[in-house]
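Structure representation.

___
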Amino acid sequence: MTGAAKRIGLEILGWTLLLLGVAAIFLPGPGLLGIFAGLALLSQQYDWAERRVEPVRIRALLGAAEGVETWPRIVASCLGALVLAGCGVLWIIKPPAPDWWPLSDTWWLPGGIWTGVTQVASAFIAVGLIVYSYRRFHGRPDEVEELRSAIRRDKEG
């Protein structure tokens, strides 16, 4: 692969991951992870992206750490992943619209099978991130405080 082709491929992948990450902030999915991955790839070509990689990485790690600080948060995160997987399975199965559904049947579970597949995949990613976060941050308040300090330093400087 030539250097130009590799650069263009990485740039397309970076922009795609960045846009998917932004969309995943509002839709089910690992938004900050996608944004970070996109920025990391784009940082090889653009100075503006390079300046934003570290702040996004630190905020993503802080969100992961805060998600496993207490058992209620861990349980809520796991239940959220389970509900997301269940919704994905529902989308994949696509049962007929129930009688109580007030809109047209075409608005019942829109998006088709791939919406369900991405929801199930997002649930697996979420479980993996919960396990990672638990192993790295649970019971280690000093590491969480270090992330918070890094964010404060970033805001000041």
